[in-house]
Amino acid sequence: MFGGAINTAYSPHLRKSGSRPVFTELGDLGGSAEEGFLHLSVATEMKGVSTPLSTAVMMPSPAFLWRFKMLLFFIWGIGCCKIGWDSVMRMSAELRDLFLYEAFLYYNPLLLMALVIWLWGANLWVFSQANVNYAKMFDLDQYHLTHREIWKCAIWMTIIVPTSMTAYLYLYSHNEVSLAASQPVLLYIGLTMILISPFDIFYLSSRYYLLKTLWRIILPLQAISFSDFFVADIMTSMAKVFSDLERSACRMLHGQVATIAWFEADSVCGSHSVAIPLVLVLPYIFRLFQCLRQFKDTGEKSSVLNALKYSTAVPVIFLSALKYHVFPDRWTNIYRPLWLLSSLLNSMYSFYWDVNRDWDLSCFTRIFKFGRPNICSYLIHGRQWVLFWVFGSNLILRCTWTYKLSAHLRHNYLTVFTITALEIFRRFQWIFFRVENEWNKMSSKSSVQLSSIDNPSEEDKLLSSNDHNV
Hints:
Blueprint: H1 33-56, H2 62-89, H3 93-129, H4 134-137, H5 147-173, H6 177-196, H7 204-218, H8 226-237, H9 239-253, H10 275-298, H11 301-311, H12 313-321, H13 328-358, H14 375-380, H15 384-400, H16 413-454, H17 458-466
Helix pairs in contact: 2-5, 3-5, 3-9, 3-16, 5-6, 7-8, 8-10, 9-10, 10-11, 10-12, 12-13, 13-15, 15-16
């Protein structure tokens, strides 16, 4: 790649996945085994000679590099805040609020996606500390991303998105409207190309796994795996994110970025668009179909009850959207009370399902019992306050998250952003105990299988002798 011949025999990073390591090729030297051994000895001596030369070069310590990176990150953050604030202050008071609403629409879903990646990395860190075999649980290969690689992706998202937003604010405030309008468009195109790129860059196998899972969620034509409904559940917490992505893409496709064309609420990309409730409801429809597919495959009645839970989100979304399409008195007297009732039903049903179905309270916080105890494990594992915190926060956020599903409240964009971020945090803590529940099931199943192997019953012997697929 850099113009020199590289010996890949001893480099596991340059080998293809699944290929065997090649230690040496003595036959290519044209000599005997003794000659090969001589060449190997000479190479070892030369390596030993070069070692002092390489170590003589002063290399900065990891601690120094980390501090230097943090300093650069701090300088970058201060610079973005300063430039963004000065740019906003250059605008008139009338234009400022409308412009910030538009800029916020383009960049808030990407910031929330960065938050999801950060929190998912924290989930994986806890799983690794607790020795949870999450790779088997999610059917991942041996080359799956670890929490460190997830956090690297989060760092890049955290840097790129605010930088693009700062450039957008600066260019627009300095009357470079066309250049300003290109900033969110280039950002969206770039991130989309990275996600769907067929080239072996940027964690191809992990991107392929994510896209394949999303495809299985959209079309549940096969048996539902744990990773399928796990990702679909996370998508329900990101319904507002997907809705904002659709609004942003609509304005980009219609050339309305950095213009006033979208100010009309009844326009194709306005706040009264029918596409808003349709996109909001999609994650719940996907999850509902998964439950019905699960019932078809297993016949479990709990799958029907779970499907009913997701169906309760549909009236919350569409009753809210009716505000812009009915007379005000009908909304106040008829549809608004129905919306409040359906919101309460959805919140209580979802909270009940979390506590009684998705979590295993018999061994709560087991997932925080780390192999090497640290302060996090000491504060959380086996502590009673965790139970009260999880129950209380989950109940409160279950009741408030319907706010973000309501199209008639989306003009309060800062409030909606805060509630959406809190809902993502609620999902982040839900993941711990949902995975803990699945881990307990896997552990108990393994114990039963081991006991049946050690003490096989007559029925087990008969089944094994007949080679039945149980």
